[in-house]
Amino acid sequence: MNDLGFLTDEWLALLAERGAALPETPGADLVVQHEITGAPGGKVRFVIEWRDGRVVRAEAGKAADPDCVIQAKASDALRVLAGEVEPEVAWMQGRLKIDGAYREMLIDLRPWRHSDAYKALWTDMAERTA
């Protein structure tokens, strides 16, 4: 069911809707600025704000004070989204750059990121991405 363009406003709106319904995970709080190059429209910047393991904001633009900034090429971001490569592996290979709270993102919040609900969110988003 590939019906949404990757990183479009519609894609981000669906992420916000689906991510808001995740189960509460106290302490899983992070404001993540994403900067993706090589997208069909060029460079794309968007923010995902997580509070207690739920998405409270997913929108195009820049965060005023993000906890971390993730940079990647669109092709690598799609591979991570599709589950073809773990974020930790992409980071070690230099395909995913994380400035700021990289330890929190990759290590401290790893159990939450590897939860069934979190994985199901991204699997669903990947299946809906054109």
Report on the structure:
The chain is an alpha+beta fold. 38% of the residues lie in helices and 29% in strands. The chain has a 5-stranded mixed β-sheet with strand order 3-2-1-4-5. The longest helix has 12 residues, at 9-20. The radius of gyration is 13 Å and the shape is globular. 19% of the residues are buried.
Q: What tags apply to this protein structure?
A:
single chain; 130 residues; Nonspecific Lipid-transfer Protein, Chain A; 5-stranded mixed β-sheet
* Low-confidence region ranges: none
Strand content: 25-35%
List the domain count as a whole number. 1
Report the major sheet.
5 strands, mixed
What name does the CATH topology carry?
Answer: Nonspecific Lipid-transfer Protein, Chain A
Structural class, from secondary structure content? alpha+beta
CATH architecture designation? 2-Layer Sandwich
Question: What's the helix count?
Answer: 6
Q: What is the approximate shape?
A: globular
Q: Percent helix among the residues? A: 25-40%
The span between the termini is 8 Å
Strand order of the largest sheet: 3-2-1-4-5
Task: Please provide a brief summary of the model.
The chain is α+β, with helices and mostly antiparallel strands.
Produce the secondary structure layout.
Elements: H1 9-20, E1 30-39, E2 42-51, E3 54-60, E4 68-73, H2 74-81, H3 87-92, E5 96-100, H4 102-108, H5 110-113, H6 116-127
Parallel strand pairs: 1-4
Antiparallel strand pairs: 1-2, 2-3, 4-5
